[in-house]
Write a structure and sequence with these properties.
heterodimer; A: mainly alpha; 8 helices; B: mainly alpha; two-stranded antiparallel ribbon
């Protein structure tokens, strides 16, 4: 790959002041990631919209469960509800993540840089992952506050961190590929949901079972938790590798 | 179809395959039907089938009703396997397209996915009959059922995606990528009964299945018949699509 010296294509050119050093793939990655983060810090568009949306979903849950609150076990349902929240919020975020690239013609600009296209995938997936994790950090205490304070979750509750992390990595990876595809289609918002939800289903299933296992606790927690986590991790690895390989074809089509 | 030396050999309509396609369709239909009928007539019943009323066989309550209705297996499983094989070809043609950027492979991928969708719907329909009849419910969130349902949704999503893109080359690339990703679900669906044991979907392909030999032969007849049908449907539909493409190209030439 013939890199132009110093052509990192951004105002935040990385590290070197001299134009002699060829930027490596890692430099490209950092620059692209920094571009997304800077944009987010200036506009706060993604975080506010996703944060408010997830709060609204929590309120809808409240209404949906209002009539049942005394007679069912919220611990059994908590994991599932949490993942419903994450899936819908990430759908919203993934839709937005490429739309402003498209609107301002940024994507063409990025594609002009002579870099390995899969670096774009990694950078974009990382920024999506960071935004999703930030939203989760905001929303999980709220979820706990609204739904789980009436009961006592098991002591293993803190272990929901791992399924959340593994699940969010998969969602960000698969979602980045799919949102790149759907950005160029008619009816792109619906399109993303149509492709995204079936595709993450195995991951979702595994993550829900792992999350529920540690929220409910009990004797066989680990017997459910570890295989489910391994399943989710395996699916992540396969999907992200595939997306990484195929991304070049998608973005240059 | 796999020699990629210099010039890529493109699949084309006509030739020997299209000549035998109608015969293959007829033979396949005959074999599948014959095998299915024979399971009711000449085949030895599954061990312990001659029960009156209900009896306990190998930890399972078994009745004559169950033993006869389980013959849907000889339709359901071949159709399901054929649909999975067809999706394998979707991924194969997707890879070929991405390698060569030849529109022909995109046509192949589209046609083979159409065949897969037909077979998937047949699988779902026959499975649904079985679910209702034997378990008494229309739907159960059971691993095999669920993974197969999302397989169906993915294939439907594949066609929705195709319809939502106008530029042919972009459509072909995206469809190829999505077809390859979709294929990831096929091994998951196939292996799921091994990973998460469920009482209702047995592990079919194993060495100690205890299927009587004559039943096994009948199963293979049904299976082979179904594969012939899938192949013939693919060839017939491919020929039709290809000829339409050629007519369109000719029209364009005439206009110029």
């Amino acid at each position: 790959m013939a890199n132009l010296p110093g052509a990192t294509g951004s105002t935040n050119a990385v590290s070197t002041t001299s134009a002699q050093v060829r930027p490596t793939g890692f430099h490209h990655y950092l620059t692209l990631l920094k571009k997304d983060l800077t944009q987010e810090f200036r506009t706060k568009e993604m975080l506010t919209s996703m944060g408010i949306y997830s709060l609204l979903v929590l309120i809808v849950f409240g209404a949906a469960l209002a009539q049942t609150a005394s007679s069912f076990d919220i611990l059994q349902m908590g994991g599932g509800l949490l993942w419903v929240l994450i899936v819908f919020t990430s759908l919203l975020g993934l839709n937005r993540s490429f739309s402003h690239e498209k609107e301002n013609g940024c994507l063409e600009g990025v594609l002009l840089i002579p870099l390995d296209r899969s670096v774009i995938f990694l950078a974009k997936a990382s920024s999506n992952l960071l935004f999703l994790l930030a939203v989760e950090i905001m929303v999980i205490p709220l979820f706990y506050f609204f739904f789980l304070t009436t009961t006592t979750p098991a002591e293993t509750f803190w272990m929901i961190v791992f399924p959340l992390l593994v699940g969010t990595i998969g969602v960000a990876g698969i979602g980045t590929l799919l949102s790149t595809i759907t950005i160029n289609t008619r009816g792109k918002d619906v399109m993303l949901a149509v492709l995204f939800i079936p595709l993450i289903y195995p991951l979702l299933y595994a993550c829900v079972s792992a999350t529920t296992a540690v929220i409910v606790g009990g004797e066989w927690t680990m017997d459910v938790y570890l295989p489910a986590l391994a399943l989710a991790g395996g699916y992540d690895v396969i999907m992200i590798l595939l997306s990484w390989v195929l991304y070049d074809f998608v973005i240059s089509a | 179809m796999s020699n990629t030396k210099k010039a890529v050999k493109l699949p084309e309509a006509g030739g020997i395959f299209d000549k035998i396609a109608p015969i293959a369709l007829l033979t396949g239909a005959l074999l599948a039907t014959l095998g299915f009928i024979l399971t009711f007539t000449i085949a030895s019943l599954v061990p312990g089938a001659a029960v009156n009323g209900v009896e306990l066989i190998g930890d399972q309550m078994v009745s004559n009703k169950l033993l006869l209705s389980q013959n849907i297996f000889y339709f359901h499983v071949p159709v399901a396997i054929a649909s999975m094989l067809a999706l394998g070809f979707t991924a194969y043609y997707g890879i070929r397209f991405l390698m060569t950027k030849e529109a022909r492979f995109d046509t192949c991928a589209k046609v083979v996915t159409e065949v897969a969708l037909v077979f998937i719907i047949c699988t779902m329909a026959s499975g649904e009959l079985w679910t209702r009849f034997e378990w008494g419910v229309w739907w159960a969130w059971e691993p095999r059922l669920t993974t197969y349902l999302i397989l169906m949704l993915l294939v439907i999503g594949y066609f929705i995606l195709r319809n939502a893109i106008d530029d042919p080359e972009r459509r072909a690339s995206y469809a190829a990528v999505f077809g390859i990703i979709t294929f990831v679900d096929v091994p998951i669906c196939f292996m799921i009964t091994r990973m998460i044991p469920s009482s209702v979907h047995p592990v079919v392909f194993r060495t100690d299945s205890g299927m009587p030999p004559d039943r096994l032969v009948l199963f293979l007849i049904c299976f082979f018949g179904m594969l012939l049908i899938a192949f013939a449907l693919y060839r017939l539909r491919f020929r039709q699509v290809r000829l339409a493409e050629r007519v369109a190209a000719l029209k364009e030439q005439l206009d110029d």
